[in-house]
Amino acid sequence: MMLSGDRSRLNITFIAHRSKTVRKLFAIAGLSLGLIGPAIAESQVDLSKLDTGMAGPRAQVLVLGSVHLSGMPKTFKPESLEPVLERLAAFNPQIITIEALSGETCDLMARHPAVYALEDVRTYCRDPAPARAATGLDVPAAIAEVRKTLKDWPAQPTPAQRRRLAATFLAANDSASAFVQWLYLPKSERHVGDGLDAALVALLQKFETRNNESFQIGARLAVRLGLQRLYAVDDHTGDNIYIDDPQRYGQAIQKAWDTAGEAALASRKRQDQLSADSQMLALYRLINQPEAQRLAIDADFAAAMRDASPQHYGQRYVAGWEGRNLRMVANIRAAFADYPGARVLSIVGASHKPWFDNLLGQMQGVDVIDAGKILK
User: Fold this and answer.
1) 197 within a domain of the structure (yes/no)
2) Which InterPro entries does this chain map to (predicted)?
3) Three-class secondary structure of residue 95 per DSSP
4) Do 238 and 371 fall into the same domain?
5) How far, in Å, CA of 107 to CA of 131, rounded?
6) pLDDT single digits (tens) 95-134
7) pLDDT, tens digit, for every residue of 315-356?
8) Cα three-residue angle 18-23-252, rounded to 5 degrees
9) Are 188 and 257 in the same domain?
10) 72, 295, 313, 374: most buried, per Cβ within 10 A?
């Protein structure tokens, strides 16, 4: 199994949403674009030098391509990530984003069952009902309460304040940020109270040992650096493509993946060996190398683009992937829009990194940091 990418195994539930919506607007838009295409080409503006001579500091964004720790061998121990955490802490990010759906996105998907399959919501979003019962806050109200609380957050919060904020984050469907507040608490203060009931405490305790990069890297690093929250930037609305035959679609994509060359297979094998040996720093160095990323995306997305199915399944697969990445990068940009010159760490599955680096590199006043230099 290829550990570095989101697409190491086919997820038909995710890829083939059960949407019955007829995309007439896209057909109309396509016709309109076809009519004005030449005019658009002639009026393109080069934005690459727009920030030349800009006033103020430039943002520094580091995209860490990550393995999904949920797929690590049973022998994996979170403490093996310490060398990685040390190097990321030296970068000293002020904002950390993670590959998770925000409470807003989960709430949106849950409110549109005709567009988003229920199984997808259950897969990517935690049920907010227990936290709502404990706090009396639904997702929108909890999100508003989080913002209000953090605006006046004291330099030395009490354990009760941290418990209350953890409960509010859970009600906002922001598990990773809730876990940040939980980790700040001394073990003697990790108990029921201030909005946390027994069920929520049990949930937070489970996060302590869950193999998930948002918790084991993002949350633990946030506490080490004195940050109060993480920013969930994943988005599965942009890849909500309509597939008429999920089984045939899955077969076509898998057939494309099966064409991986020897170099790509050797890279996967090396990743698997480093994972088995818990050589996490070496593993992260490898999967963040441009050559390893090139091999991975050629065996995945480039292979899909060569799919010759009459339905053009490969192109649709890549379209969904790019739509997702575009919306994720927009969420990253929004996370530090109010913080010019911020240092930002984005933790994401390694298959996203080439898209993230490319798109973030087009943002004004933003410098993309070489992950290889940080992981030395």
Assistant:
1) yes
2) DUF5694 (IPR043749)
3) strand
4) yes
5) 14
6) 999 999 999 999 999 999 888 888 888 889 999 999 999 9
7) 999 999 999 999 999 999 999 999 999 999 999 999 999 999
8) 55
9) no
10) 313
